[in-house]
Specification:
There is one protein chain. This protein has a domain of 175 residues. With 362 residues, the protein is mainly α. The protein is globular and about 85 Å long. Helices cover 82% and strands 0% of the residues. It is built from 13 helices and no strands. The protein starts with a helix and ends with a helix.
Length: 362
Amino acid sequence: MSSKTIAYGILRAVAVIIGVLGLLWFLYKIQSVLIYIAFASIISLMGRPLVSFLKRKLKFGNTLAVMFALVIVIGLFMSIFMLFVPIISEQGQLIGEIDINQVGDDFDRLNQEVSDYFNVEKLNFVELIKQTDLMQFFDLKAIPNAINSFLSGFGAVLIGLFSVLFISFFLLKDSQLLENSMLVFAKKEDENKFMRAFSKIKDLLSRYFVGLLLQITILFVLYTILLLIFGVHNAIAVALIAAILNLIPYIGPLFGGLFVLILTLTSNLGFDFQSVILPKMTYVLIGYLIIQLIDNFLNQPLIFGNSVKSHPLEIFLAILIFGLLFGIGGLIVAVPFYTAIKVIAQEFLSEYKIVKKLTKDL
């Protein structure tokens, strides 16, 4: 091998490395745009069945069906936002009317009742908090900065929302737009495989996201009934938050249950612990666990099994691995990414035995 060939190979390798680093830098710089496209893709996947229904059953034109579907999506988000306006307004009013001395007396009395009921030494919660590292997070000087950051970020949120809706409109209007855009990364001989894989991924993920929406709706209704029965303040908003937290597999329900119990406690602050607070918290916890069992044994198998064609053990391992690699975000995107990887492997690596085994139901 001549020195000229070696030098050419080295230069080519360096150019490839520089190109890859440049591409990564570019993707890092436009990460907000990629996030917009990701959210728009999710909305378009969820909206596809609705658009198809409007076109097939109601004879809507393509553009009109897409616009109608997006109006429904906007209305859904606006309804969720408006649901939180009263609770924020109410909490702001309550904060202004708080009697600090009365709150201190209530917590002190509750602390004494809990200690007496469980026959333990009375705990000084203030001292316990001071002994932990939690106090470093409570910096009053940071409040004005946080408010300024929120106000400055509000404009960015509006821009992001408009961008997501704008991209969603065209992804729904032209169902082949994303595939055609991605074809630039495929070889000529692999274009048919690529199109089949992309079409199957869209179909599976569309059913998956619609299933998630149905799951959240069912949980929201059940949580609302439970919290209304036991008189928890702002039951509808609390139920919605708890239902949305279920989007985070395994961890979300734990945080949702803790959140519901805390709100149940604060809703009954001032009542007797033994006769009112403890029984009510116990009943709410039992109801919450029953709803979780319904979700785990009825809702999730239908969504994960039928929509993404994967065994529950596969889903668990995928969520575990993605969670270890990418944290909370990994838990949320584990199922869609794993589904996409399986479909791509079926199209391009079908000769391997493990791929055939994992993708036999696709």
